[in-house]
Amino acid sequence: MKPYPPKRALNFLRWFCREDYIEEIEGDLTELFEKEHHHDPRKAKRKFLWNVIRYLRPRFIKAFKVSSGTPKPAAMFRHNILISYRSFLRYKSSFLINLIGLSSGLACTLFIYLWVNDELQMDRFHENGDRLYQVLEHRQQADRIWTAESTPGPLAEALAADMPAVEKSLVVGRMFNTTLSMAEQNVRADGKFVGKEFLTMFSFKLLQGDKNTALDGKTGIVITEALAQRLFGTTENVMGKMVDLNHETQFIVTGILQNVPARSSQQFEFLLPIEKFMEDRPGLLSWGNTGPYTYLLLKPGTDVQAFNQQIADYIKRKTEGNVTYRTPFIVHYPSLYLYGKYESGVQSGGRITYVKLFSIIAIFIVVIACINFMNLSTARASRRLKEVGIKKAVGAGRRSLVYQHLSEAILLSFLSLVIALGLVVVFLPQFNYITSKQLSLELDLSFILALVSATALTGMLAGSYPALYLSGFNPSAILKGKFSSAAGEVWARKGLVVFQFALSVIFIVSVVVVYKQIEFIQSKSLGYNKENIIYFEREGRTGNADNLDSFLAGVRNIPGVTGASTTQHDMTGHNSGTSGVEWEGKDPDNKTEFENITVGYDMMEILGIDVTQGRAFSRNYPADTARIIFNEAAIAFMGLKDPVGKVVKLWGETMEIVGVARNFNFESLHETIRPVFFRLKPNATYLIMAKLEAGNEKEALARLGSFYEKYNPGFTFDYRFLDAEYQAQYAAEQRVASLSRYFACLAILISCLGLFGLAAFTAERRQKEIGIRKALGAGELGIVFLLSGEFTRIVFVAIVIALPASYLLSSYWLQNFAYRITLEWWYFLFAGFMALAVAALTVATQAVKAASRNPTQTLKTD
Fold first, then answer.
1. Lowest-pLDDT range, 115-119, 486-490, 512-516, 601-605?
2. CA angle (746 as vertex; 740, 748 as ends), nearest 5
3. Poorest-confidence range of 629-643, 709-723, 811-825?
4. Is residue 514 in some structural domain?
5. Integer CA distances (angstroms), 290 to 471, 630, 749, 771, in order
6. Is 90 a residue whose pLDDT tops 80?
């Protein structure tokens, strides 16, 4: 037998002994080995290691302990770090796989943490946030209870007067985009009409001016710093200057706001007094109409549940029983951003659903990365058995061994954290683009503590099973070579791989379902044509009724424009509703809210809304301003037979039904179709819509912009595409679709990294078996199938487990849509095939490499 030189023993002992101590015992080792080799050369190697431990145990203990006999923490820490470092160098492939997997998982977790934290902090900066509430309404519809944010105009003032629990109240108009001017400077900006208590109820910081009086009267305007810079080029000496609104009405700057925080759900650039808004829209002063939003600041200690009971029939009382289908209630304003979804009058989630979803995804991705560490550590346990056996034999307790392996895992986690932070810094701009946020990596004390804690927890999670597993070996069995892998360990490793790939399959199915649902939303016929239609505000000369017809005629004559008209509805959600519709045979207890769409001539034709009975509005019938068109849902709700020619009353005015429009979706596909009516009143509209010829949009827009600026000097041509604005209603779903693709790819990548490592290790352990099989005539293809079969079966089990779970999760998510896809069988087959194909390709690369080795080389290895 070839002598076993003491040098190899010395190198082995250097893994866990001090270098100076190795030099001291080198002579003793040489003498001991020669003695064992002389008695029995065949058993010299094993007996030598065992006798080394017995003979040198006292000195071994001395090598690790101080004179007092207690462990020295600093020395133990350095020792564990050194052992970990050498382990990383020795098992480079496992180290790199774990490093890539953990760093990717931690980077993903950091991204999700930044997004989740930002979502949770939305609207939480208001000083009075704990007492700030918004009034919503449950509205009984034909087939559902619809929850809306819009309220009657008089509600805020009435609640402040009638309810002792209300400290302050506020009415806010809808956001609008308009032109503000200072001298020759014209800018477009988004603004709101608000009540005078706006700045005292909400904590938007006023840099200049008095928040108690800035919005008094009708002539004041409060602008943000950014808008002041755009208008005046400075924020100094701006107070008291005049600003023109649409070159018609002048306002005095009475305050300058700090730019609205990104964590505010309300984003605006200027504020105007609500009195102006109400003057121009007298219909909003009726309790039967809705439009503005109402906010309340309640007194401390108010019982919200009791308050809601008190106001449940408030609108009914104010309308003397005429409006019975609307039930107002209040919700905590800072919570509304996350919990803003209601179904059948019951709170049923909102953005909080995605916060929870992505938090769970972050945890799962980290767990998948930790599983790689567990699997590779336990799989390579045989390589570290002698190290563990010797340490336990010389007196090392199980606790110290657990500590060592956990230290190794935690060290790897912190190395991964460094890389993860680098990845976050590099890819954060792209992540902000995907999520439409302004996230930043701010390393404050709380964040650092959370980061360190999470990383340490990840390391402990990753290293817990290997540490307990390796530290539990019997040292006698190890050193005598009687150790073999337990069946439980093998099954545990297989179970972890199954868990990894089951999650990966669920992610793949989710990506497919979300993609198909978004595709369905984008392609589903809404009942009207939104393609190639732009719209912009009526302002300046176009806002004057005397100029409207001439302007529209000029637009229609522009090459590339196929039609133009006006409307007060942007077709992208609820704009204006009313219950002021009366008809013959109406049940007093069966009321609903009709969506009001006021249009000019040709508007229905431009939108492509079909009229199934009767006709659309026409210039050939001057009396059409006293006529009305309902959609099919409205006619069905009213229970009218042969409706064309029948008479209804709208706000007390007699209107003849001239047509019935086919049902169409003006809200998102989360909602069902609601009753709608069209009325012809061009002068009551404030939007202009123009349809462009397909393929010539760019040229037509250039000509239209040039015509607009000549016709309407002092105003910029600021337009929006109708289809883009409609799709904006699905911003949350589109972000989920984008992020889910990245997360699914990451989960599959990390899972495959672990599978790659296991396959490589399996091929390494079975190389002699492979050599013997090849020497006996086995082909390379057969060996590839032999090595791939076990892992393929494991992944197949994961697929079988994951598909039912993914079906349930997909079905649950699709319930958020009133119109949704049908879950096809091939979605799941595709996901399973993808997971199986990727896993098989990963394993096959190692299997082919192992099968192509020369058997003479593998059989020569010791």
1. 486-490
2. 100
3. 811-825
4. yes
5. 71, 19, 52, 82
6. no
Tell whether 58 and 186 lie within a shared domain: no
CA distances from 317 to 141, 294, 310 (A): 20, 18, 11
Helix H or strand E segment including 832: helix 825-851
In a domain, 558, yes or no: yes
Q: Say what the alpha-carbon torsion angle 567, 573, 575, 576 is, to the nearest 10 degrees.
A: 110
Q: Which amino acid is at 114?
A: L
φ and ψ at residue 47, rounded to 5 degrees: -65, -30
Q: Give the C-alpha distances (Å, rounded to integers) separating 362 from 106, 415, 505.
A: 8, 19, 16
CA distance 483 to 84: 24
Q: In the structure encoding, which two tokens stand for residue 560, read together?
A: 């590339």
> Which region among 71-75, 136-140, 790-794 has the lowest average model confidence (pLDDT)?
71-75
- Token couple for 627: 């006529």
| Shared domain check, 510 and 653 | no
- Residue 614 CA to residue 644 CA, distance in Å, equals 6
Residue where a domain stops, chosen among 680, 714, 748: 714
| pLDDT digits 0-9 by tens, 383-421 | 555 565 655 555 555 566 666 667 777 888 888 889 989
How far is Cα 168 from Cα 156, in angstroms, rounded to an integer? 9
Please say if the pLDDT value at position 373 is more than 80. Answer: no
Domain hosting 256: range is 129-337
Which residue carries 């069905």 as its tokens? Answer: 636
Residue bearing tokens 């299997």: 847
Domain boundary among 41, 64, 87: 64
Same domain? For 362 and 477 the reply is yes
Paired tokens of 778? 């086995």
Fill in the DSSP letter of residue 576.
-
Collapse the DSSP code of 651 into the 3-class scheme (helix H, G, I; strand E, B; otherwise coil) and give the result: coil
Locate 684 and state its tokens.
């009551």
Q: Which residues contact 594 (CB under 8 A, 6 or more apart)?
A: 577, 578, 579, 581, 634, 674, 675, 676, 677
Q: Are residues 583 and 651 in the same domain?
A: yes
Q: Is residue 1 part of a domain?
A: no
* Chain mean position to CA 126: 24
pLDDT-based confidence at residue 68 (cuts at 50, 70, 90): very low
Which of 432, 446, 371, 445 is CA-nearest to residue 111?
432
Sign (positive or negative) of CA dihedral 754, 757, 760, 765: negative
The pairing of beta strand 249-257 with beta strand 242-245? antiparallel
Q: Are residues 680 and 626 in the same domain?
A: yes
Reported as half-sphere exposure (CB side, CA atoms, 13 A), residue 209 has a value of 31
pLDDT tens by residue, 796-827: 888 888 889 889 988 888 887 777 888 888 88
- Whole-number Å distance between alpha carbons of 648 and 131: 44
Three-class DSSP category at 363: helix
User: Of how many residues is the chain composed?
Assistant: 862
Residue 17's H or E segment, with its range, is none
Average pLDDT rounded to a whole number, residues 833-859: 72
The closest alpha carbon to 780, from 687, 684, 851, 838, belongs to 851
Which segments within 637-759 are labelled E, that is strand? 647-650, 653-661, 676-680, 687-692, 720-721
Q: Mean pLDDT of all residues in the chain?
A: 80
Contact residues for 858 (Cβ-Cβ < 8 A; gap 6+): 767, 768, 770, 771
Distance between first and last Cα of the chain: 13
The answer to whether 685 and 568 have CB atoms below 8 angstroms apart is: yes
Query: How many CB atoms lie under 10 A from the CB of residue 428?
Result: 16
Total domains in the fold of the chain:
5
Pair 163, 251 in one domain: yes
Same domain, 162 and 245: yes
In a domain, 456, yes or no: yes
Nearest to 601 by CA among 713, 688, 518: 688
Count of C-beta atoms within a 10 Å radius of residue 384: 20
Q: What is the dihedral angle through the alpha carbons of 156, 157, 162, 167, rounded to the nearest 10 degrees?
A: 70
Neighbours of 653 (CB within 10 A): 11
Residues 239 and 150 occupy one common structural domain: yes
Amino acid in position 475: P
